[in-house]
Amino acid sequence: VTSSSKEASDLFMKGREKLENSEAFAASTLFDQAIQKDPNFAMAYLLRSQSGGGFNVFRQNLDKAVSLADKVSEGEKNEILFSQAQADGNGAKEKEYLDWLLKNFPSDKRIQTQAGIYYYGNNDYSKALDHFKKATDLDKNYATAYNMIGYCQSSLNNYPEAEKAFQSYIKLNPNMGNPYDSYGELLLKMGKYDESIAQYKKAFDKDPENFAISLGGVGHNYIFKKDYTTARKYYQDMFDQSKMPGGKLTALYWKAVSYLYEGKVDESVKAFDDYRAFAEKENLATNAINAYANQGLILTETGNPTEGMKYYQKATDLIGKSKFSKVDVDNFMTQSMMWQYYNLTAQGNYDKAKAEADKAKQKVDSRKNHGEEMFLNALMGYSAFKQGNYDQAIQLYSKADTEDPLNWYYQAMAYDKKGDKQNANKLLEKIKTSNVSSLNLALAKNKAMENRTVENKKK
After folding, report:
1. pLDDT tens digits for 189-232?
2. Pick the CATH number of 1-105 from 3.40.1280.10, 3.40.50.1980, 2.60.120.280, 1.25.40.10
3. Distance CA 410, CA 404 (A)
4. Contact between 301 and 443 (Cβ < 8 Å)
5. What is the value of pTM for the model shown?
6. 172 with 143: CB under 8 angstroms?
C-alpha cells in the first residue's frame, strides 16, 4: 500500500480489517486518522469512501482517491478506477478494470473477494462463489470470504452449506458482531424467527457501536411474526443506537416499510416524509430523492398512479436542484426516465410511456450497467403485462432482477392470465413464504393477498 507514513499505513490496515467485517463506524475513524497522518494516502480515501457517512462523504473521498491515482502502483490505481466506474454506473469500464486486476493479481485474496462481490451484486451467485472459494483457498483463515460464501449459498438456497460457512466465520471471529448478524439473517430467511432474534441480539451485544443495524434484524423477525408494534420498537432502538446518519435513515426506512406490511399506505407515505426530513437535515440529497421515489412507487402500486407521478416529479425536480457532479446527475436522470416510463404505463398512457422507454433504453444500452438493464427489463415486462402480451412479459421478467418480489408478482399474474395456474401459484407461494424484508416484498405480499381474496370470492 502506497503511503509516506508507517503510522498511516498501520491505521489503514486496522481500518481495512474493520471494514471487511462491516464495522463501518470504527473503520471510518481509523481511515480519517490515517488520512491525517498522510493527506496523500489514495487507498485510505478509497476505503473511507466505502465506510459510511452518506453520499457526499462517499463522493468526496472517492474523487480525492481518483485525483491521487497516478501517484500509486498500477494495482492500486486500477482498484480506484474500478470503484470510480462502479460509482459512475459505467458497467463496461467496471468489468474492464476488474478483469485487469484478476489477470495481474490472481493470487490476491482481496481481489478474488472483490470479484466475488461484483458477481454477487449482479445476481451471478455461482460465479461469485467460485471467487470467494478461491479467496479461502489462498488463505483458509480469511474470515470475510466465509461470510460471503454464506451469503452466496443462502442466495442459491443451499441453507446447510450457508450455515456451515457462517459457523466458520463465527469460529474465526467469535468476538465480532458481524458473524452473528450474518447468521441471524440466514435464520430469518429460513423462518427460524426466535433463533434469528437470539443471533441478532448477540451481534448487538458483541459490538453495539457498529451493530445497531442488528436491532433492525430483530425488527424484521417481528414483521414476519406480524407483531408490527414490537418491530417498530426495535427500529426505533436502531435509530437511537446508530452512530451514523446512514444507520438512522435505514431505521426510518424500515419503520415506513413496516406500515406497508400492515396495509397502512397513508402511514407509510407519511413515514417517508419523516425519512426525507431527516435526510434534508443531514444534507443527504440522494436519500431525499429516493424518499420521493419510494412514495411514488407505493402510491402507484396501491392504485393511485396520478398521485404517484407527483412524487416522481418531486424526485426529478430535486435532482435538478441538487449540487451533483455531471456524472451523478446522469445516473439519477437515467433513473428518473425509468420512473416516468413505469408510472405512465401504470396510468395506461402507453404512447407517452413508449417515448420515455425509448429514451431510457438508449441511455441504458450505452452504459452497460447490469442493475439498470435488469430494472429496464422489469419495466418493459410490466408494460407488456399491462398491454396483454403475457408471453413477452414472462420472458422480460426472466431477464430482470430475479430476487425482486414485485417481479415475481407480475410474472405470476402473467402466468395466471395465460391459464398457467401451476407457475402462477409457485411464484405467489414464494412471495407468501419469503422472509427477506424489502419495500417491494411488502407491496407484493399485499397484492398477492388481495389477489387470493378475489380468487376465493370467485370460487
Report:
1. 999 999 999 999 999 999 999 999 999 999 999 999 999 999 99
2. 1.25.40.10
3. 11
4. yes
5. 0.92
6. yes
